[in-house]
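Q: I have 178 residues here and want to know how they pack in 3D. Can you give me a structure?
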Amino acid sequence: MQGHLVPPHGGELINLIAAPGRITELRSVSQSMPSWDLTERQLCDLELLLNGGFSPLRGFLSRKDYEGVCNSMRLADGRLWPIPITLDVTEEFAHKIGPGSTVALRDAEGVMLAVLHVDEVWRPDRAAEAEAVFGTTSDAHPGVDYLLHKSHPWYLGGRVDCSSLATYLAVRTEMWTS
């Protein structure tokens, strides 16, 4: 039956759910990590990263990938990718985090869902991003309005590890049934 499936974008279905031994390690070290409480939109992006829906991505875009997507709808390696997948954070948080940092990504209740291994921190030109991605900077467009007025001004790029499949699924199931 598997021979009848369409191959995932990029040729490999990415699964970022951590193995059981890694889950224990991540839970233990996450207590001393800086934490970011994900918005509902960021939770959706995280879910798609973790379950392979955003294959071939292994985390939030690096600046080079982000610029490639905005300029030519391509990742740095040339693969087609139509929209930036970014983790937006406040300026205050961005100044506390640097390349090489590890951040615990938590839901609104403080449950650690994943860990981000930060490669880059930068402030993008969000008006240029709006024009590149949506073809407009008009606030009348809901995507532009969100980007320019509801998202945070700094981006973190890096690889994601999930803390626990069970925790992740329980939180997502609870969100969908509430």
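Q: Anything worth noting?
A: The chain has a mean pLDDT of 87. The CA atoms of residues 134 and 141 lie 8 Å apart.
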